[in-house]
Amino acid sequence: MEIWKKKSVEQYSAVPYLATFANCGLWVLYGLPVVHPHSMLVVTVNGTGFLIEIVYISLFLAFCLPEKRLRVAAAVAAECVFLAALALLVFTLAHSTKLRSDIVGTFCMIGSIVMYASPLSVMKLVIKTRSVEYMPFFISLFSFLNGISWTAYALIRFDIFIAAPNGMGGLLGLAQLLLYATFYRSTKRIMAERKKVGGVGEVGLAQPIAQLEEHENVGAQKIGSHGSDFSLA
User: Fold this and answer.
1) By C-alpha distance, which of 156, 143, 149, 159 is closest to 105?
2) Which of these, 97, 108, 120, 143, lies nearest to 26 by C-alpha position?
3) CA 35, CA 150: separation in Å to the nearest integer?
4) Taking the model in full, what pTM does it have?
5) H/E stretch holding 192
6) SS3 content of the chain, % helix, strand, coil (to 5)
7) Under a CB-based contact definition with an 8 Å cutoff, are residues 126 and 74 in contact?
8) d(CA 48, CA 221)
9) Contact present, 131 and 208 (Cβ < 8 Å)
10) Integer Rg of the chain from CA
């Protein structure tokens, strides 16, 4: 919604959307009756997620810079080719649902780990800038709830391919929520300062970065002055 309102992706990263797009596609393949029988819930939920990610990525492509648009479009194309190739190979070379489940399930685990780990770059930005502006709260919240829910579902059926990555995802989602709680107030302050100076776009991020650099420079000067005093003594 923020991208739609501002008509710009600003500092938002496409990585989480790309990772979720590929992950949902993998889980749809995993849940097919010819791969892993009795998993229609997996198909319907991830099929819906796959369609939603198409909308998100389309919005991202519409409002990002041309050079970034090419990279994102190429990544989407590569993911589609990979999903098609995997499906073709599995249906052609694996002749039992057990083997198909093991092969696709392994890729699903990797995809889920990548999806849950994709916000790590945003978390690094949050720590560096002391601002959660580009780490949406509801994405973090639902990432946490999604991980917990699928872990519970997997434990009922004891599906290690679902339980392992989603358990880790729940922990990463919790880490994002803790970061959000930690830097929520500083984000409000940064955004208020931005409004005062009439800045737009990246000012909210530039200010804390500049403050960090200034702090580091002051620290270096202090160390240098102490070093000079010591040598004079």
Assistant:
1) 159
2) 108
3) 19
4) 0.69
5) helix 160-197
6) 85, 0, 15
7) no
8) 56
9) yes
10) 22
Q: pLDDT digit of tens for each residue in the chain (233 aa)? A: 566 666 676 667 788 889 889 999 999 999 999 999 988 999 999 999 999 999 989 988 888 888 888 999 999 999 999 999 999 999 999 989 999 999 999 999 998 888 887 777 778 778 887 777 767 778 788 888 988 999 998 888 788 899 998 998 899 889 888 888 888 787 778 777 777 776 444 434 444 444 444 544 444 444 343 443 333 33
> 126: how many CB neighbours lie within 10 A of its CB?
22
Q: With the CA atoms of 23, 14, 116 and 128 taken in that order, what torsion angle do they form, in degrees rounded to the nearest 10?
A: 170
Round to whole Å and give the CA distance between 47 and 40: 10
134 SS3 class: coil
The torsion of the CA quartet 97, 163, 16, 85, rounded to 10 degrees, works out to: -10
User: For residue 1, what is the DSSP state?
Assistant: -
C-alpha count within 13 angstroms, C-beta hemisphere, residue 210: 7
Which positions ≥6 away from 47 have C-beta within 8 Å?
A: 24, 28
CB 53 within 8 A of CB 17: yes
Name the one residue in this structure whose structure tokens are 């739609």: 4
Quick one: three-class SS letters along 120-149? HHHHHHHHHHCCCCCCCHHHHHHHHHHHHH
Residue 118: helix, strand or coil by DSSP? Answer: coil
Place of tokens 């709680």: 181
CB atoms within 10 A of CB 125: 19
